[in-house]
Amino acid sequence: MRIITANVNGLRSAARKGFFDWLEGCGADVVCLQEVRASAAQVEEVGGKPPGWHVYQREAEKPGYSGVAIYSREPAREVVDHFNCAEFDAEGRYVEARFDGLRVVSAYLPSGSSGPERQAAKYRFLDEFALHLDKLARGRDEVVLCGDWNIAHTPIDICNDKGNRRNSGFLPAERGWLTEVLGRGWVDAFRQLYPAEEPGGYTWWSNRGQAFAKNVGWRIDYQLVTTGLAARLTRAEVYKAQRFSDHAPLIVDYAD
Amino acid sequence: MRIITANVNGLRSAARKGFFDWLEGCGADVVCLQEVRASAAQVEEVGGKPPGWHVYQREAEKPGYSGVAIYSREPAREVVDHFNCAEFDAEGRYVEARFDGLRVVSAYLPSGSSGPERQAAKYRFLDEFALHLDKLARGRDEVVLCGDWNIAHTPIDICNDKGNRRNSGFLPAERGWLTEVLGRGWVDAFRQLYPAEEPGGYTWWSNRGQAFAKNVGWRIDYQLVTTGLAARLTRAEVYKAQRFSDHAPLIVDYAD
DNA sequence: CTTACGAGG
DNA sequence: CCTCTTAAG
User: End-to-end CA distance of chain A, in Å?
Assistant: First the structure.
């Protein structure tokens, strides 16, 4: 089973860069997207409803903002497009597809980098989301939590750790929150497979300067999985051969 | 003497399309621009203050909106960047460069096509501007009134005359106003040289559809000149070899 | 720097 | 349809 997560920073922009051509041959069973920034109708207009895929989407109320989606080869038994948090459900940050014994989530955590107001919103999200993750972890189904978490966990998850200690996305409180989550039954799929890696596995590079060319990146896109799935991990890869967005897709394979 | 008028629809955009390369070799003594849509500093950033040219500019108060400029090989004796009409002077629609016995004006008349409010503004402009044109005509200097007038004068000045009789830019009241102006001492340079021409000489084509490819255009950019200059007209050309904008430059030569 | 939106044309 | 704005990232 192959699951991919990707922040596309505008699915219409990603489509222009060949995202849907790549999707066709990527071998995934489920693909989770964040920052779709388009309505279902707009997604359809750019070839975003390809045959052979089921598409489950949650838009933000504000047009062109945020938005998540799940593309699945198999139809979901059930789809839930919120986590019962009015403020952030209105921002289109959560969609969950339920299959037989498996739930796949596409989540887009707020960025706090635009200022203190959005950082405060990010902390509100983290509080609410932690409660929801606890509920998911206590359920019977295995779960893959895909998403752009907008948090780099440890110094090996970011290029310039010292310079970013006071920047949103690498603040001690954010990193501590993620450590807490990982202590409550969730496993970071990429890090489980490559625990002793040198700094790397980055999934995001700023558009400013030559960040991608110089690999000045952050690992902020994750698949967190329940322990049953962690035991089935076989491979993880950050796909950098094509650029669809300022983020790179994270591809994770699980033994069937 | 060669004088050129061009609505550049964003001078920064036109610069990306090679406008300043073309300017260097265009042979003009004076070039009048409309819809500059950039501040003097922004113009400078994109190479808009080339050596060998004097640049006289009037910005709108609203950033990125309207704005006119005059590029001149010779320095002006005097520059006036308004026509004493508070409403439209604030919109950056008039700049006049005064030379020995000659005044060159770059004027950008309002478009009314976005709705009744802007059409009403256009009529207010026409009323005020007519008074100003009368003053200019009564002066001692010869005058070249360059600009985007946002009015096609007669059926041979527009591709689809019947279909546009009720559209802003070809309304009877607008066309009548222009006829009035031409009756008070101003000569339409292009039409003076090519009076019996078939429909054509268009200077603007919609960006929608294939208007340029199909030559579905409007002649709305003019040089209106005082009678002394009308006698010196030698040549007029709409420059279509390169596209800097949805408008084409109008090049007019006057005997020295 | 890039993607969206909305105004204006 | 295109070029600007601003907000957001």
Answer: 6
pTM metric for this prediction: 0.86
Nearest to B30, CA basis, from B253, B184, B182, B201? B253
- C-beta contacts of A131-136 below 8 A and 24+ residues apart: A132/A83, A132/A84, A132/A85, A133/A181, A133/A184, A133/A186, A134/A184, A136/A103, A136/A105
Question: What token pair was written down for A39?
Answer: 């309505």
- Whether A198 shows a pLDDT value over 90: the answer reads no
For the CA of B99 and the C1' of C3, the distance in angstroms is 47
State the nucleotide closest to B113 in CA–C1' terms.
C9
Q: Who's near A142: CB < 8 A, 6+ residues apart?
A: A101, A102, A103, A225, A226, A228, A229
DSSP A89-131: HTTT-EEEEEETTEEEEEEEPPP-TT-HHHHHHHHHHHHHHHH
- Residue whose CA is minimally distant from C6 C1': A63
B38: the nucleotide nearest its CA (via C1') is D4
pLDDT tens digits, one per residue of A101-117: 999 999 999 999 989 99
C-alpha to C-alpha distances, A130 to A97, A133, A182, nearest whole angstrom: 19, 5, 11
- Of A7, A62, A71, A22, nearest to A38 (Cα)? A62
> Which neighbouring-strand residues pair with B254?
B233
Look up residue B158 and give its amino acid: I
Q: What is the pLDDT of residues B114-162, one digit of tens each?
A: 888 899 999 999 999 999 999 999 999 999 999 999 999 999 999 989 9
Distance CA B172, CA B177 (A): 8
**Hey, is A13 helix, strand or coil?**
helix
Per-residue tokens: B44: 């400078």
What kind and span of H or E run contains A228? helix A227-230
Tokens at residue A88, please? 């952030």
d(CA A121, CA A128): 11
- The stretches of B139-165 forming alpha helices (DSSP H) are none
How far apart are alpha carbons A124 and A91 in whole angstroms?
A: 13
Domain boundaries, given as residue ranges, for chain A = 2-254
- Strand C: which bases are under 7 Å from protein Cβ? 1-6, 8-9
Can you tell me which residue has its alpha carbon closest to the C1' of nucleotide C3?
Answer: A10
CB A109 within 8 A of CB A121: no
Rounded to whole angstroms, how far apart are CA atoms B233 and B132?
A: 24
Judged on CB neighbours under 10 Å (0-12, 13-18, 19+), B213 is exposed
Q: Which residue is nearest to nucleotide C8 (CA to C1')?
A: B114
pLDDT of residue B199: 77
Q: To which CATH superfamily is domain B2-254 assigned?
A: Endonuclease/exonuclease/phosphatase (3.60.10.10)
Which position has the token pair 């890090």? A191
